[in-house]
């Protein structure tokens, strides 16, 4: 059972609901989002009925949600959620493209990247300062200095920034640099303590799919963030592991309509980490938009051959421009805009 509270709800009204749940032998999880406060019942729900809560002051609705994931489920919220990322709206009719290098390298590289992202018509910029590398002997990212470089480059074009958080201890530096979107990478999708930490703040979170995670595990991971009160969650399909070795991962296009059915939250696709080769990125991007994705997260480097990380999959600035030129028509065919 979840109880959705109305806009101007008071603490006293919340308390009445909590007490009522406790009297029935359950506990309450209060999830304080910006848009709505949702109280989740924890325990055996059989003694509960919706009518026990709907007449109470401050209660907007109460419903039994059959899914294990509650706040993120479409069952609990029918309309698409549109997330406002420093003025850029994701999840509505307009498709948004996040582009930029895999990792922050130098000020010059980031300045050029920001310029090319802007010129290609993308609305947000990506770049990793803390990198989750398979080998401890490869470049691990520029760290805090990288965030500074990134912020400086992106600010010139007013591009909101997307960057990966690997450890809750880095959260203060992320807040200090006003990171617009926190990315949780595939390797951390089930790092539950990290998910709880980003659940406590209100910065939008891109939650990448674990490389071997089922859709229900992914939805439950998002529920961890939502349960803490952060409802600004964006799902990102980035390819999964299969027996196929020809490409880096298999882009699970099927997951897009499934997620759009199961959750009201936006869904984006990372074609770069799926294919692992730049030449695959246009086809995968086009397929993702055609299948209903709300946006893309694409790697681009001013000089792909010299990228310090993921060089094979980085688009050149011209290739990004060309890709953007093909997406408008697809968006239009399905009633959306770019
Ligand atoms: C990335 O976006 O640079 C990244 C490391 O992605 P993933 O977590 O999907 O591998
Ligand atoms: Mn990468």
Secondary-structure topology with pairs:
Elements: E1 2-5, H1 11-23, E2 27-32, E3 37-42, E4 59-63, E5 83-85, E6 88-90, E7 96-100, H2 107-120, E8 124-126, H3 144-155, E9 161-164, H4 171-176, E10 181-184, H5 192-199, E11 205-208, H6 215-227, E12 233-237, H7 255-262, E13 267-269, H8 271-275, H9 281-290, E14 295-299, H10 317-333
Parallel strand pairs: 7-8, 7-14, 8-9, 9-10, 10-11, 11-12, 12-13, 13-14
Antiparallel strand pairs: 1-3, 1-4, 2-3, 5-6
Helix pairs in contact: 2-3, 2-10, 5-6, 9-10
The protein binds phosphoenolpyruvate (PEP) and manganese (II) ion.
What does this entry look like structurally?
The protein is an alpha/beta fold and 338 residues long. The chain is 31% helix and 18% strand. The protein has ten helices and 14 strands. It has helices spanning 11-23, 107-120, 144-155, 171-176, 192-199, 215-227, 255-262, 271-275, 281-290, 317-333; strands at residues 2-5, 27-32, 37-42, 59-63, 83-85, 88-90, 96-100, 124-126, 161-164, 181-184, 205-208, 233-237, 267-269, 295-299. The chain has an eight-stranded parallel β-barrel with strand order 7-8-9-10-11-12-13-14, surrounded by five helices. A four-stranded antiparallel sheet has the order 2-3-1-4, covered by helices on one side. The chain is globular and about 65 Å long. The protein starts with a strand and ends in a 5-residue tail after the last helix. The model has no long low-confidence stretch (mean pLDDT 97). Bound molecules: phosphoenolpyruvate (PEP) and manganese (II) ion. Manganese (II) ion (MN) binds next to loops.
């Amino acid at each position: 059972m979840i109880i959705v509270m109305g806009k101007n709800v008071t603490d006293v009204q919340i308390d009445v609901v909590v007490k009522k749940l406790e009297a029935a032998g359950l506990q309450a999880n209060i999830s304080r989002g910006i848009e709505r406060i949702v109280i989740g019942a924890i325990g055996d729900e059989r003694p509960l009925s919706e009518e026990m809560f709907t007449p109470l002051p401050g209660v907007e609705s109460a419903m039994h949600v059959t899914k294990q994931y509650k706040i993120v489920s479409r069952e609990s919220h029918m309309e698409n959620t549109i997330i406002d990322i420093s003025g850029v709206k994701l999840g509505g009719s307009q498709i948004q493209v996040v582009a930029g290098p895999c990792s922050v390298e130098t000020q010059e590289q980031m300045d050029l990247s920001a310029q090319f992202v802007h010129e290609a018509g993308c609305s947000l910029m990506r770049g990793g300062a803390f990198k989750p590398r398979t080998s401890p002997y490869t470049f691990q990212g520029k760290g805090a200095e990288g965030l500074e470089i990134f912020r400086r480059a992106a600010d010139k074009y007013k591009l909101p920034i997307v960057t990966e958080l690997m450890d809750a201890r880095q959260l203060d530096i992320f807040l200090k640099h006003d990171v617009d979107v926190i990315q949780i990478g595939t390797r951390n999708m089930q790092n539950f303590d990290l998910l709880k930490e980003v659940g406590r703040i209100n910065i939008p979170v891109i939650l990448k799919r674990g490389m071997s995670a089922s859709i229900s595990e992914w939805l439950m991971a998002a529920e961890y963030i939502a349960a803490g009160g952060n409802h600004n969650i964006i799902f990102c399909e980035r390819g999964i592991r299969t027996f196929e070795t020809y490409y880096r991962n298999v882009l699970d296009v099927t997951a897009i309509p499934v997620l759009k059915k199961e959750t009201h939250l936006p869904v984006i696709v990372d074609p770069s980490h799926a294919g692992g080769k730049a030449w695959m990125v246009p086809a995968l991007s086009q397929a993702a938009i055609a299948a209903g994705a709300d946006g893309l997260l694409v790697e681009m480097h001013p000089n792909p051959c010299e990228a310090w990380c993921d060089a094979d999959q980085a688009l050149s600035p011209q290739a990004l421009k060309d890709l953007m030129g093909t997406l408008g028509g697809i968006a239009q065919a399905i009633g959306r805009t770019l």
